[in-house]
Amino acid sequence: MNANPVEFPEGFLFGGATAANQIEGAYDEDGKGLSIQDVMPQGFVGPITTGPTPENLKLEAIDFYHRYAEDIALFAKMGFRVFRFSIAWSRIFPNGDDTQPNEAGLAFYDRVLDELEKYGIEPLVTISHYETPLALAQRYNGWVSRDLIGLYERYVRVLFDRYGARVRYWLTFNEINSVLHAPFMSGAIATPPEELSPSDLYQAVHHELVASALATKIAHEMDPHIKVGCMVLAMPVYPLTPAPADVHAAMAADHANLLFGDVHVRGEYPGYALRMFRDRGIELDITARDRELLHNTVDFVSFSYYMSSCETADPAKRAAGQGNIMGGVPNPTLQASEWGWQIDPVGLRTVMNQFWDRWQKPLFIVENGLGARDRLVQVDGHPTVLDDYRIAYLNDHLVQVAEAVEDGVEVWGYTTWGCIDLVSASTAQMSKRYGFIYVDRDDDGSGTLDRYPKKSFGWYAEVIASNGRTLVRPSSQ
User: Fold this and answer.
1) In the chain, N or C terminus with fewer CB closer than 10 Å?
2) Among residues 367, 403, 410, 462, which one is catalytic?
């Protein structure tokens, strides 16, 4: 018996999260155009190719496009209350600047929503999740161009008109602050990073922020019941030492990420950002209409959380963390995953309190999980994965979410990242697995694509059914 049970609010939305480019496959079916992901066969760390190549696992991914009904039935078996997925922009507007949407693409997401409704699973939809149409990178240099605001507006109007009555929760851009570190994947910016000027980079940031605010305005005008959130990559930054210079360095690193949430929630650029622009000689084209649109602030703040980092003012101690998209200095007190992502459950509680105190907007944790090399074994004649390491990771993070709720933080839900094995965004591997469901596909593209529930599948089903009461607090609590 759990003597000190964890409690979550009634109606808390437990579920899982995915992205179209990492699960759907069918990259050239039913009128879909190419996306930037189709020319990134090694993830954001690898070279950009001129077109789709056979080694790009995302071209087939896990074939959710044809197996969505089977997969959603498995999510329902776990008791999912919410499922986060993204819509592939190039499935709706193949080139991004087409005048008319692709009906076959729209119909696919109708079918996905039909399945979710059949099981009473709430959809949480990301409008743009690292899958900008490739043509927009090639013709416009992505979000560096102001033209993308209007093209995104056309896209979101179609989505809200088609699905607005069926989807209550929307996210405008995935991990919008990642554009500072992965400009092509996040912002479809074709300029090589070493040639990209700070002014062009932050102009792209500005255009995305305006487009996000415009989408929020459109949604609220079409249906006031729609809730629109921003989505940021959250990573609390600790000073490496108590030295005042290290504390200031950590604050400055934090500001680089908080800027995006500040604009989404407050509707204007904060003073520290304006100073940074001045100090770095960054000049932005910000129109009067832009400033007016930014006042359309989000209803909630969603975020991914995988790790924390440290910062220091001492150049000799600035050893960047392995595998960390956001940079930062490794924390000597923490263990790391095989891919170098440091594991810090308490950091989740920390960042939740920080966001709530700063913005006073409801929070939604829409990505959290452990990438690991799972091994398929036979148990009672059935293939499965004994992923106790994943159970321990998720248990400890969910306990910290409950602690944040006790702290007074308002949080609507939690969706684990990669609830079914999918192609990694950072490395384009299948072997970096996150899911509760094993998908029989390897890094060389071989495999049957058959699905097998892991041990964590049953564990998460119990967590959801008990509203978190089966979670186990660490002995130190």
Assistant:
1) N
2) 367
Of the candidates 293, 473, 320, 466, which has an alpha carbon nearest to the alpha carbon of residue 400?
A: 473
What digits encode the pLDDT tens for the residues 352-375?
A: 999 999 999 999 999 999 999 999
**Burial class of residue 64 (count of CB atoms within 10 Å of its CB; 0-12, 13-18, 19+):** buried
Predicted confidence (pLDDT) per residue in 93-115, tens digit: 999 999 999 999 999 999 999 99
Report the distance separating Cα 173 and Cα 125, nearest Å: 10
Cβ atoms within 10 Å of 338's Cβ, excluding its own: 12
What is the C-alpha end-to-end distance of the chain, expressed in Å? 17
- CA distance linking residue 88 with residue 127, whole number of Å: 8
Q: Which CATH number fits domain 13-465: 3.40.190.10, 3.20.20.80, 2.60.120.10, 3.40.50.2300?
A: 3.20.20.80
Contact 139, 184 (CB under 8 A): no
CA distance 137 to 128: 14
Burial 234-244 (b: 16+ CB within 10 A, else e): bbbbbbbeeee
Strand intervals (E) in 368-450 = 376-379, 382-385, 411-417, 437-439
- Both structure tokens of 24: 């759907």
In DSSP notation, 316-347 reads GG--PPTT-TT--BPPTT--B-TTSPBP-HHH
The conformational region for residue 235 under phi > 0 = left, psi -120 to 50 = alpha, else beta, is beta
The pLDDT assigned to 261 comes to: 98
Residues of the chain with pLDDT under 50: 1, 322-323
Model's pTM, two decimal places?
Answer: 0.96
Q: Are 102 and 151 in contact (CB under 8 A)?
A: no
